[in-house]
Write a structure and sequence with these properties.
Layout (H helix, E strand, L loop, with lengths): L1 H9 L9 H17 L7 H4 L12 E4 L1 H7 L4 H4 L6 E3 L10 E3 L10 E3 L2 E2 L10 E8 L3 H4 L6 E7 L7 E10 L5 E13 L4 E13 L6 E14 L3 E15 L6 E2 L4 E2 L14 E16 L4 E17 L2 E5 L6 E4 L2 E22 L2 E22 L30 E17 L4 E18 L4 E20 L4 E12 L13 E2 L5 E14 L3 E13 L2 E6 L4 E6 L2 E14 L4 E16 L14 E10 L7 E11 L2 E2 L7 E2 L2 E14 L2 E10 L10 E3 L2 E2 L6 E9 L1
Parallel strand pairs: 4-7, 23-25
Antiparallel strand pairs: 1-6, 2-3, 4-5, 6-7, 8-9, 8-40, 9-10, 10-11, 11-12, 12-15, 13-14, 15-16, 16-19, 17-18, 19-20, 20-21, 21-22, 22-23, 23-24, 24-26, 26-27, 27-30, 28-29, 30-31, 31-32, 32-33, 33-36, 34-35, 36-37, 37-40, 38-39
Length: about 700
């Protein structure tokens, strides 16, 4: 009996399994070090499958969470300057996201997502975004109607099962009393002990615009809930945003030299009332359920709406010799856009006939509406001179143009898709997929309403690929993908043509090959070679007699290039993200535009941003970093009548994390456009050339708890 008692006393009881909160804390600690090292892994929502990049035949580039924290990008195209082959296009006077990917993209192409579901294309980058991912090339198999250049997926911050939070206050200045202030609150933690968690994010900004007038204001409130069960995860999130932005079309060109007007870059050519103001709401819900060890079910729904009004006085003609200009006192009142989308799919990892298959079966549907109620078109008296401007003599326009109003663009689509990643061996993989797509679109304007687009159709779109893994860290891939996007226009085409079902949609075909690597789970990247052919393309041309931009089909265009993206930790102290792209995008079939370069597409782009982490050598944690991005010259319009000059923009930052009063505090100093370079990121035509922001200093303090 004594021996039995002693044996019981010496018996070590097995430790209790970790709670959900303990697991979350351990995972967060590991992830924090990976994030600091710029570790970049795509989310499961972008490729739907959750496969690691080395097992995929499609390219996904990532702007990691810590890169966004370090660089503090002002908007989406600022963040995407880290990714190869991306340039800015028409941002609607600096109020919308608009980026070109591999030669293709515009501000209404539906290519910007949140967690894999489409957004109204306003401004997608805000305080709720954790990272940004870019799926390169045609993505119609997974997303339906999309341009062949790819899509941008913004990933949300999720609630955590352990309590933590932060408060940030940031002050900024462009100099010359052009100052601003930002504030943010981010709090998350568990609710009870059953796997329920919350997150609350709030943000506010009030900043004086860097040019001679204008203000930028924004407020955001974003609560979210998550439930983490044994086999099921549920997310529910809401965002409300109010905004007011300068509606700034930039500068114009001197038509004698086709170079920007010889006036200070701060000088605007419109009026102080040129602002856009509005609000947006986003609701998303998703369920991820593990059916068994081999199958998972995912379903998600998203609804996004945006309303805005804008005063849009614009230049219609410039006489650079005398300085005289003509202007139109335009505006948009009662703008309403919304997009509703749902997706559901099954993911399986099974053995069939002795071979491993990763299977994906799903369906989706989307309805998008863009509506502009009252379009203001009003002439202005002569007298404004660019060399001696006198502002404040005009009031916002009030004359509604019946023929331009009630602008409407309605798009509906539904689809079914399937994909199989077939493991012939552990090294050799074959990928095959197919989508059935059905769609309809109506677009037009006017009172009475005239439909300039009225079409419907369906299409079967395939995908194929081969992957060979040399090792667990390096793979080669080859892929074939297709895309489809209906040709559509709200305004009449040249000659009054109505786009009907008899006019073929824009169709893209891409061949891509390259190499991927993920070395020691520290540094990863992709070297890609691609060739995209797209036919039935709409191009815009300025009618010099009316000052109105008109559209017509260009026949066929081609984009081919090379892209290199690398991100990660070079050493324990040095992290980096860098890219290079060669993009040759031009018209190959057209009566007048053949051989012309595509508008706003740079032949060469490059970026490099590096960070040195001093670790614990000082009382706090000091990190210093900086980098630059290069964009070569670009065609400023479809006719290649002028080029935007190449530019280099450098940014830098320093952060210092120290414990104060028992709480971690991070001080961060950023300089955007370090050398205060003058540059022009995009153009609509020779009258509307965007100007890049002047040098901006910011100092932030973040208290973590």
């Amino acid at each position: 009996p004594a021996r039995a008692v002693a044996a019981r006393r010496n018996t070590t009881q097995p430790p209790a399994p970790p709670t959900a909160t303990e697991r979350a804390i351990a995972a967060a600690a590991l992830r924090y070090e990976q994030v600091l090292g710029y570790r970049a892994m795509p989310s499961a929502t972008t490729l739907r499958s959750g496969q690691p990049p080395l097992n995929s035949a499609q390219t996904v580039n990532v702007v990691p969470e810590q890169v966004i924290r370090d660089q503090l990008p002002r908007n989406l195209d600022d963040a995407l300057s880290n990714i190869s082959g991306i340039t800015q296009t028409n941002t609607l006077a600096g109020t919308q996201d608009a980026v070109i990917r591999r030669g293709f993209g515009d501000n209404r192409d539906g290519s910007v997502m949140r967690n894999g579901l489409p957004l109204v294309q306003g401004r997608a980058l805000n305080a709720t975004v954790e990272s940004v991912e870019v799926l390169k090339g045609p993505a119609s198999l997974l997303y339906g109607i999309i341009d062949p250049g790819g899509l941008v997926n913004t990933i949300s911050k999720r609630p955590d099962l352990f309590q933590h939070g932060s408060v940030t206050l940031l002050g900024s200045t462009f100099g010359n009393a052009k100052n601003g202030i930002d504030g943010a609150v981010d709090i998350t933690g568990p609710i009870g002990t059953n796997g329920l968690a919350y997150r609350f994010i709030a943000y506010g900004q009030d900043e004086t615009y860097w040019r001679n007038f204008g203000t930028r204001k924004e407020t955001l409130i974003a609560p979210s809930l998550s439930w983490y069960g044994e086999d099921t995860t549920v997310h529910l999130s809401y965002e409300h945003r109010d905004f007011s932005y300068p509606f700034d079309r930039g500068t114009s060109l001197d038509t004698r030299t086709m170079t920007p007007l010889a006036i200070p870059r701060e000088r605007r050519l419109d009026e102080p009332y040129n602002q856009m103001w509005g609000m947006s709401d986003l609701i998303q819900a998703s369920v991820d359920h593990r059916i068994n060890a081999n199958w998972k079910l995912y379903a998600a729904y998203s609804y996004n709406t945006e309303r805005f009004d804008a005063n849009q006085l614009r230049i219609t003609n410039v006489n650079a010799a005398t300085g005289a200009v003509t202007r139109s006192n335009d505006g948009t009142h009662g703008s309403l856009s919304n997009v509703s989308a749902g997706v559901s799919y099954l993911r399986g990892d099974v053995a069939i006939g002795g071979f491993r298959h990763e299977l994906l079966f799903g369906g989706d549907a989307q309805y998008r509406s863009i509506y502009r109620q009252d379009l203001i078109r009003q002439t202005t008296p002569a007298g404004f001179n660019i060399y001696n401007p006198i502002y404040g003599t005009l009031q916002p326009g009030t004359t509604v143009s019946a023929s331009d109003s009630d602008q409407t663009d309605l798009l509906g689509m539904r689809g079914l898709f399937a994909q199989d990643t077939f493991y012939l061996t552990n090294r050799l993989l074959l990928v095959g997929g197919v989508r059935w797509l059905e769609y309809e679109q109506i677009a037009g304007r006017g009172r009475p309403f005239t439909a300039n687009t009225n079409l419907a159709g369906n299409k079967v779109l395939p995908l194929g690929g081969v992957i060979y893994k040399f090792t667990d860290e390096v793979s080669w891939y080859l892929s074939y993908t297709e895309s489809l996007k209906p040709s559509s226009t709200i305004a009449p085409l040249t000659g009054g043509t109505v786009i009907s079902s008899s006019i073929a949609p824009e169709e893209g075909i891409q061949w891509e090959t390259g190499f991927r690597f993920d070395i020691n789970k520290r540094i990863s990247g992709t070297l890609a070679f691609y060739d995209i052919d797209k036919k039935n393309v709409l191009v815009s041309q300025l009618n010099s007699s009316t000052g109105i931009t008109e559209f017509r089909t260009a026949g066929r265009v081609r984009s081919r290039g090379v892209e290199l993206d690398v991100t990660g930790r070079l050493t324990d102290k040095i992290s980096m993200i860098g890219s290079y792209a060669y993009t040759d995008a031009r018209v190959t079939e057209d009566p007048t535009l053949i051989g012309k370069s595509l508008q706003n597409v740079a032949l060469n782009t490059a970026s490099l941003f590096m960070v040195y982490d001093f670790g614990t050598q000082l009382p706090g944690r000091l990190r210093i970093g900086g980098g630059a991005r290069y964009v070569s010259d670009r065609a400023g319009d479809a006719n290649n009548s002028f080029d935007l000059p190449s530019y280099v923009v450098a940014d830098t930052f320093a952060s210092y994390e120290v414990n104060q009063g028992g709480l971690p505090v991070i001080y961060q100093f950023n300089v955007k456009n370090l050398f205060d370079n003058i540059y022009y990121p995009s153009a609509v035509n020779n009258l509307n050339v965007a100007i890049g922001d002047a040098r901006r200093f910011s100092l932030a303090a973040t208290v973590k708890f």
